[in-house]
Design brief:
It comes from Sphingomonas prati. It is a single chain. This protein has helices at residues 3-28, 30-34, 42-45, 108-119, 155-166, 247-251, 254-277, 279-293, 295-299, 304-310, 325-330, 347-351, 357-361, 374-377, 417-429, 459-467, 486-493, 499-516, 524-538; strands spanning 51-59, 66-71, 77-82, 91-98, 126-128, 137-140, 174-180, 186-192, 208-213, 216-219, 233-238, 314-315, 339-343, 366-369, 383-384, 387-391, 436-439, 448-451, 478-481. Helix 15 (417-429) crosses helix 17. By secondary structure, it is of the alpha+beta class. The longest helix has 26 residues, at 3-28. The strands form 5 sheets. A 5-stranded mixed β-sheet has the order 7-8-11-9-10, with helices on both faces. A 5-stranded mixed β-sheet has the order 12-14-13-16-15. The chain has 3 domains: 3-106, Heat Shock Protein 90; 145-279, Ribosomal Protein S5, domain 2 (2-Layer Sandwich), CATH 3.30.230.80; 327-540, Four Helix Bundle (Hemerythrin (Met), subunit A).
């Protein structure tokens, strides 16, 4: 630029000052006001946030003279000739005289960090020269990795770039690099990490996909993916979004909404391909991020079928491995009308839960769901190929119609008169703690278990809501008793003798069911006293 160019390009903002500039914005108002951003040198004007003075020294190509533009940002500027030896041979030099409290911006690491994060991929190489006699060090080569064809990028290149955008030191488990063309054009370079980010379950956690427009960084707060895909790292570079649009306007842009939908669908599609082509590699991704992806089953109705196909589960038939819902469907038994599941916070305890005994006896597979989100998505009216999800701890088990394996004999369903009388006594004794006491068709080895009523809330969901302070008053559970269990038969045979002892036993049965369900007895001291009295009676 020559002196006239400097006045034309930089004089507007310097003459106006902050107050005048903001008044101009306000006078235009509405969407036209937002379009002023980028037209009046806001980016250049931001230099005065850290500099008490800014010099712009420039020489126009083909001209011998050079000029210097200077301003303190307070509303005035000067333009004067400058010795050609102090000016670049051609081009422009911007000099910031940093204020005392902004000296950190002159530190090398801060300069490199700013260049790489804000302008590391603009189509111009950027070098750093610390001292006049030092060799320049290239900070950015002006070539954006995502603009190159995939065949020209090595796995090492991808890994290095992934680490630079993610701040992690692992290798990506999945790399997605493509360019979308059509109504809207944009490039995508996305990575699925192989390890969990430390803040994966932070309640304020948002996505970490960066938005670029024509290789210029815009924001990392555009929420380019749904929250249940917040573990994905990378960027989207759009050719259609305007550079001079504010971040708030970008967030509401229909173009961005289309990009979000396309990128989300593409990543899920790539995960589906990986699940089919390399199941072992996909299972590693699921083990790391499955608990987060399952949030989408609760939040994203539109993509629920895809997420159900991606989901993998530990089950009573998986022998420690993972099973898909397609695997589960292939093993559904005759007359089985639902997909059964058990929720909790400990996989080992779930696998040994007494509520599973009747299902195991009939070879009915049960999903074991140990993540907190499981208690929510299974209750959201979801189904898989027409079969609803049903908790094994809620309502009656309805196992009578499912045949036993060949060679097995069905136990006598009818309870003896003594057992029936004992159940009535237990129900009367526990009237303050349970809503009902009934015989169970789900128990084969255990004496008792607790379940929720048919219309009640699943017990694990009720516990989670209670812990968060959002649950209604807890409903009384149902105590189911195995009428064929040796302990129950012997207790029933005692008849009406020693009412105090029978009351202790009834309470202990309820305590036992609570412990098996992963809870503490409601009254620990009472439990200890009852147990002591029963043991004392049993001693000679």
């Amino acid at each position: 630029m020559n002196a006239a160019d400097l006045a034309d390009a930089l004089g507007t903002i310097a003459r106006s000052g902050t107050k005048s500039f903001m008044e101009r914005i306000a006078s235009v108002g509405g969407s036209e006001g937002t379009q002023l951003i980028g037209q009046f040198g806001v980016g250049f004007y931001s230099a005065f946030m850290v500099a008490g003075k800014v010099d712009v020294i420039s020489r126009k190509a083909g001209e011998a003279e050079a000029a210097i533009w200077s301003s303190d940002g307070l509303g005035s500027y000067t333009i004067a000739p400058i010795d050609v030896e102090e000016a670049p041979a051609r081009g422009t030099r911007v000099v910031l005289h940093l204020m005392e409290d902004a000296k950190e911006y002159a530190e090398r690491y801060r300069i490199e960090q700013t260049i790489k994060s804000q302008s590391g991929h603009v189509p111009v190489p950027i070098s750093l020269l610390e001292k006049p006699d030092a060799e320049p060090v290239e900070i950015a080569d002006g070539a954006a990795l995502w603009t190159k064809p995939r065949s020209a990028v090595t796995e090492a290149d991808y890994a290095d770039f992934y680490r630079s955008v993610s701040g992690q030191f692992d290798d990506p488990a999945l790399t997605l690099h493509y360019r979308a063309e059509g109504r809207h054009e944009y490039s995508v370079l996305a990575f699925v990490p192989s390890t969990k980010p430390f803040d994966l379950f932070d309640p304020d956690r948002s996505g970490r996909m960066k938005l670029y427009v024509n290789r210029v960084f815009i924001t990392d707060e555009a929420e380019l993916l749904p929250r249940y895909m917040r573990f994905v790292r990378g960027l989207v570079d759009s050719s259609d979004l305007p550079l001079n649009m504010s971040r708030e306007m970008i967030q509401e842009s229909p173009i961005l909404a289309t990009i979000k939908k396309g990128v989300t669908g593409k990543i899920l599609s790539e995960l589906e391909k990986r699940a089919t082509a390399d199941s072992d590699a996909y299972l590693k991704i699921w083990e790391t991020f499955g608990a987060v992806l399952k949030e989408g089953l609760y939040e994203d109705y539109e993509r629920r079928p895809t997420l159900l196909n991606l989901a993998r589960f530990k089950t009573t038939a998986s022998e420690g491995g993972w099973r898909s819902l397609a695997d589960y469907e292939s093993s559904i038994k005759e007359n089985q009308t639902a997909i059964f599941y058990a929720t909790g916070n400990d996989l080992d305890r779930l696998a040994t839960s007494p509520q599973l005994e009747g299902f195991r006896a009939r070879g009915v597979e049960v999903l074991l769901l140990p993540d907190q989100v499981d208690s929510f998505w299974v209750t959201s009216g979801i189904d898989y190929k027409g079969k609803p999800f049903k908790s094994v701890t809620q309502g009656a088990a309805d196992l009578g119609l499912i045949p036993l394996p060949e060679g097995s004999t069905a136990p006598d369903a009818a309870a003896s008169e003594q057992v029936t009388s004992f159940l009535s006594f237990v129900k009367t004794t526990l009237d303050d703690a349970v809503s009902d006491v009934r015989t169970s068709d789900r128990l084969t080895d255990s004496a008792v278990c607790l379940v929720a009523s048919e219309s009640g809330m699943d017990r694990e969901l009720e516990r989670l809501l209670a812990a968060s302070g959002r649950a209604p008053e807890a409903a009384k559970p149902v105590l189911e008793i195995n009428p064929r269990h040796e302990l129950i038969v012997k207790l029933a045979a005692l008849g009406d003798a020693d009412a105090d002892f029978r009351a202790d036993v009834a309470r202990l049965l309820f305590d036992e069911a609570q412990i098996a369900d992963g809870e503490q007895p409601v009254d620990p001291r009472g439990f200890a006293a009852r147990l002591a009295r029963v043991i004392t009676r049993a001693l000679p």
